[in-house]
């Protein structure tokens, strides 16, 4: 009989292997990662796919690991030492905590996501999503921690090299500075610039394409037609979609017949200029003005200056709602300032959207101001998301808006927008951040339909609302509006005050974690049904009817408009 010791069971070998693998990491770091992993899976604003949920959890786990390592270093510097017995039991406690926290966090994640899906009217996902989340989070966290440890080893190497000639403390500080500067140069000079170049190449090619079903308009009242000064090929993908769009005449007739407010109907005017239409923003804006001249847009009852999003997109529902409201007696003007997605435009050229909004509005306003006051169209401004940010960039204050326009409609305004931020910060005492009241609602009013449950909440402050009017429409569950770097260390009012009905009571603020949750929400904010998140499709009818109602327009007429806007464009 052999005297060799029996081999340990498979389970014991696996446990031993995991123990050796975990031993390569800091216990404090792993504890921090576990805490941040669990909190990252807590309630957010938007239901997420496994990809995004795993991404959020992995990033937060890596941050937690880093903070745990930092805490351990501070304790060592302070002279704190742990006995072997404490270390032994610490690892055991960490193992038990992991066995408990990970499945509990995944179950909690399923629970709150399903609760949100019930509110949003979305079907529940399969239970297999939890496994996908766990695997993605683990792989991402390991990768990020590995990157951090590699940078630390590089710093130690640099420190040992320069330490041959300078004192140790100075050597360590020099090493940190050298590695940090090199990392910044690498990120800015190679990764960022290279990434931007790649994105420009990819999205530039996308911009040269035309969406399926979009054809060049034949009506001279549209830019891109044969009569247009803005060539079809120069409009960009989103510009071509905008000028070729619109509801069929039958729908214009239907709304006019049912409301009796806008007969007879007319063919709407849509003018647009693409990036290739001019050498700079001012030149592009002048092409738009020339198109307004060519189409005799100044003879229409309403002229709307719409600032597009990053790709040049104009929300079809925004344009359709105004044209249906006025029976086509409208002109809508917009232009392209980028072909990159809004988040890329914001990161790469944050100053461009407000510069474009200002260039477009100033060019049109200068021409509009030259017309006789009693025969020029009503002038409105509008925008959604980055377009709202850009549109508001044309004005210095709310008083400036009302002095130079007949009203404004801004949807899903990003929280970094200066005008919106200033008004929200100086709201009337007692009014919540999700639906501020400013000066009793004399000029500007906020809509948040899921938060109030009333389709006519714009009138809850009373019907004594003189023109011009400004409407901000925002959802309590829209991460685009509520995202801010301040979330890293400060609890926002929208989580401290009574919240909207599509934000769970269990949604809480946690340092750093809430910031990353909100950051991830930005990428999925629009992938929800209308009325939630960043989807405002069905709310333009109420917004336009509030700020730009034709004479004799009634709440019942708004019901008709909302019904038609909510239907597919091909219906009559």
UniProtKB/TrEMBL annotation:
Parts of the chain that traverse the membrane: 21-46, 52-77, 89-110, 130-148, 169-191
Record-linked Pfam families: Abhydrolase_9, Abhydrolase_9_N
Keyword Ion transport found: no
Keyword vocabulary terms for this entry: Membrane, Transmembrane, Transmembrane helix
Metal-binding in keyword set: no
InterPro entries from the UniProt entry: Alpha/beta-hydrolase_catalytic, Alpha/beta-hydrolase_N_dom
Alpha/beta-hydrolase catalytic domain span: 269-560
Domain Alpha/beta-hydrolase N-terminal: 41-246
Name of the molecule in the record: Alpha/beta-hydrolase family protein
Source organism (scientific name): Cellulomonas rhizosphaerae
């Amino acid at each position: 009989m052999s005297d060799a010791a029996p081999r340990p069971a498979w389970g014991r070998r696996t446990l031993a292997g995991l123990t050796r693998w975990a031993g390569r990491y800091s216990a404090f770091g792993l504890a921090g990662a576990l805490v941040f992993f669990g909190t990252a899976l807590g309630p957010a604003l938007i239901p997420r796919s496994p990809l995004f949920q795993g991404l959020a959890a992995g990033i937060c786990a890596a941050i937690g690991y880093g903070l745990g390592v930092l805490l351990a270093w501070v304790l060592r510097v302070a002279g704190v030492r742990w006995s072997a017995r404490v270390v032994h039991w610490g690892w055991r406690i960490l193992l038990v905590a992991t066995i408990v926290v990970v499945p509990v966090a995944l179950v909690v994640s399923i629970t709150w996501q399903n609760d949100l899906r019930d509110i949003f009217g979305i079907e529940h996902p399969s239970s297999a999503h939890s496994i996908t989340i766990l695997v993605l989070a683990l792989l991402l966290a390991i990768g990020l921690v590995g990157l951090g440890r590699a940078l630390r080893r590089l710093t130690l190497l640099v420190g040992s090299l320069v330490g041959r000639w300078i004192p140790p403390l100075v050597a360590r500080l020099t090493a940190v500075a050298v590695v940090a500067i090199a990392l910044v140069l690498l990120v800015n000079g190679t990764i960022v610039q290279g990434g931007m170049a790649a994105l420009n190449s990819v999205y530039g090619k996308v911009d040269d394409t035309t969406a399926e079903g979009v054809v060049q308009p034949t009506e001279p009242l549209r830019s891109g037609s044969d009569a247009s000064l803005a060539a079809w090929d120069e409009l960009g993908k989103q510009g071509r979609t905008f000028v070729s769009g619109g509801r069929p005449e039958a729908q214009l007739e239907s709304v006019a017949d049912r409301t009796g407010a806008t007969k007879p109907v007319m063919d709407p005017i849509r003018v647009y200029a693409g990036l290739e239409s001019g050498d700079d923003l001012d030149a592009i804006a002048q092409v738009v003005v020339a198109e307004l001249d060519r189409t005799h847009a100044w003879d229409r009852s309403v002229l709307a200056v719409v600032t597009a999003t990053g790709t040049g997109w104009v929300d079809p529902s925004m344009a359709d709602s105004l044209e249906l409201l006025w029976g086509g007696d409208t002109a809508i003007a917009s232009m392209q300032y980028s072909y990159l997605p809004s988040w890329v435009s914001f990161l790469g050229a944050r100053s461009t959207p407000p510069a474009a909004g200002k260039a477009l509005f100033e060019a049109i306003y200068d021409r509009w101001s030259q017309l006789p006051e009693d025969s020029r169209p009503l002038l409105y401004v509008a925008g959604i998301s980055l377009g709202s940010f850009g549109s508001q960039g044309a004005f210095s204050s709310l008083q400036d808006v009302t002095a130079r326009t007949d009203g404004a409609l801004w949807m899903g305004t990003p929280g970094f927008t200066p005008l919106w931020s200033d008004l929200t910060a100086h709201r009337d005492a007692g009014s919540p951040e999700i639906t501020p009241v400013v000066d009793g609602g004399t000029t500007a009013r906020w809509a948040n339909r899921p938060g109030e449950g009333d389709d006519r909440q714009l009138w809850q402050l009373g019907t004594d609302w003189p023109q011009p009017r400004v409407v901000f429409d925002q959802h309590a569950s829209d991460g685009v509006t509520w995202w801010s770097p301040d979330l890293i260390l400060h609890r926002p009012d929208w989580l401290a005050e009574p919240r909207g009905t599509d934000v769970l009571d269990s949604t809480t603020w946690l340092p750093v974690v809430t910031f990353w949750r909100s950051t991830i929400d930005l990428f999925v904010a629009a992938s929800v049904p209308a009325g939630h998140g960043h989807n405002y499709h069905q709310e333009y009818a109420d917004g336009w009817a509030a700020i730009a109602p034709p004479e004799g327009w009634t709440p019942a007429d708004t019901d008709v408009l909302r019904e038609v806007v909510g239907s597919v464009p091909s219906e009559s």
